[in-house]
């Protein structure tokens, strides 16, 4: 077969037979709808970003982040609260099917399935439609996930004991404790430090620093209890109780 005049053969119909120079498309026929990237477009982006940055800095100055006391590793009663964007996972781990022996379900499996579905969404739903009502599966899954996150976040907020949280994180006055003092050793022997902290600045129980109580009042509380403190916690002798009471009464905030 003879090659016809002007005929060209290509292996793929999508590959042009004649290579054209790489010239960008001419948008001059769309006035006002395009602009130069540098400096016109980029300058606008920088200006918008600067406004948000200045606004955020003003917000941090007007409402600084609340600080809590220095972490005490001996305080096992402290319950940390995550930031707001993790509250839904925090609430999820409170339920019986996602906590305790099933913590791996709430901490790994459920979030893993959710984020895995998010990553696979472009591959699972490849339809050309962009209107939400024409993509019911993708839209339904998105609304379900959004509703679950809002509900769990709301539940975490309304069920949290904010009063207790403020008290456990409250910055308390500290004092240098003489751990070699006999009164401190008596406090340790009677498990006072397990509730009131190693520095006696508070934990499950209130701070014992700067109580303003007299030794006699402290001795009475140690014997008879007060509030959440049951009676009979102190097991020592009267002499040890006197030394303990005098030691605690002498603790003053610096």
From TrEMBL:
Task: Locate the transmembrane regions by residue number.
Answer: 46-63, 102-124, 136-154
Parts forming coiled coils:
none
For this protein, the record's Gene3D superfamilies field holds: Cytochrome Bc1 Complex, Chain C, Cytochrome c-like domain
- Tell me the compartments it is located in: Membrane
Q: Which residues form the Cytochrome b/b6 C-terminal region profile domain?
A: 27-154
Q: Which SUPFAM superfamilies match?
A: a domain/subunit of cytochrome bc1 complex (Ubiquinol-cytochrome c reductase), Cytochrome c
Q: Which GO terms describe its cellular component?
A: membrane
Record's keyword terms, sorted: Electron transport, Heme, Iron, Membrane, Metal-binding, Transmembrane, Transmembrane helix, Transport
Domain Cytochrome c, by residue range, is: 178-252
Q: Does the keyword Methyltransferase apply?
A: no
Membrane topology listed for this record: Multi-pass membrane protein
Superkingdom of the organism of origin: Bacteria
Which residues are listed for heme c binding in this entry? 192, 195-196
| A GO MF label | iron ion binding
Subunit and partners: The main subunits of the menaquinol:cytochrome c complex are a Rieske-type iron-sulfur protein (QcrA), a cytochrome b (QcrB) and a cytochrome c (QcrC).
Q: What role is this protein assigned?
A: Component of the menaquinol:cytochrome c reductase complex.
Member of which family? Belongs to the cytochrome b family.
**What name does UniProt use for this protein?**
Menaquinol:cytochrome c reductase cytochrome c subunit
**What is the protein's species of origin?**
Geobacillus thermopakistaniensis (strain MAS1)
